[in-house]
Amino acid sequence: MENQQEIIVRIANHLDTHYALRITTEMEASAKARGTGIAKRSPEYVANKMLEGKAVIAVTKTGQWVGFCYIEEWSHGKFVANSGLIVSPEFRKTGVARNIKQRIFQLSREKYPDSKIFGLTTGLAVMKINSELGYEPVTYSELTDDEEFWAGCKSCVNYDILMSKERKNCMCTAMLFDPKDKHSPKETTANFEKKRKVYERLLRLKQISFSKIFKRKENNGQPTKSKSLFHDFFPF
């Protein structure tokens, strides 16, 4: 079977730019299938990341595209993000996403050893992978305040939700790796496993609350805010 082929995970280069359209098309299709948002990126943007050496790609030995992820720099290098993680449908649940995340994290540490690395995700599986690398869940206030980063969310279907919460919360969960933090990956992984059921419940509650409450419009056309149980879990 195709997904049993040997998969190579490596830094992308100029020879990989022809995959850019396939990658961005799959990013958008995957977001629609999940019913979640994503900051859209053009094929040109993705190709440029390859040319800069700021992307990791997974391919088979025969040249079939498998997966991708790239690095973005914010706040003059104070923060970097590992963004756009995507795996081709036929190779999902094979463990390749974890390998890509590990390699892009390693590349980020090599290029930006003093930077904080952050990510936004709507999935528990990615939260687990991040925790194994040393990330911890944080509030949005601990992320970059770079306006260009937040402007990138305008193309996301959940942008109205983000702004209604004054950029303090949204469908995504924020996670952060701080090179100055004393917690080891072993500790952050253990903490994640300890709180796994709580995170799962909060992610589910967030999805239900935002989709049903914030998409409901008042007469003035603004999202309706709720003082329900949701705010006990996400008071910030």
Give an overview of the whole structure:
With 236 residues, the chain is an alpha+beta fold. It is built from eight helices and seven strands; from the N terminus they run βααβββαβαβααβαα. It has a seven-stranded mixed beta sheet, with helices on both faces. The model is unreliable at 223-236 (pLDDT under 50). The chain has helices at 20-34, 43-51, 96-111, 124-133, 147-151, 159-164, 185-214, 230-233, and strands at residues 7-11, 55-60, 65-74, 79-87, 116-121, 136-138, 173-177. It starts with 6 loop residues before the first strand and ends with a helix. The longest helix has 30 residues, at 185-214. It has a single domain (2-233), classed as Aminopeptidase (3-Layer(aba) Sandwich). β4, α3 (96-111) and β5 (116-121) form a beta-alpha-beta unit.
Q: Superfamily at the CATH H level?
A: Gcn5-related N-acetyltransferase (GNAT)
Per CATH, the architecture is 3-Layer(aba) Sandwich
- Under CATH, the topology can be stated as Aminopeptidase
Strand order within the widest beta sheet? 1-2-3-4-5-7-6
> Which residues sit in consecutive blocks of at least 5 with pLDDT less than 50?
223-236
Tally of helical runs: 8
Please state the average pLDDT score: 84
User: How many extended strands?
Assistant: 7
Cα shape: globular
Count up the domains.
1
What is the radius of gyration?
A: 18 Å
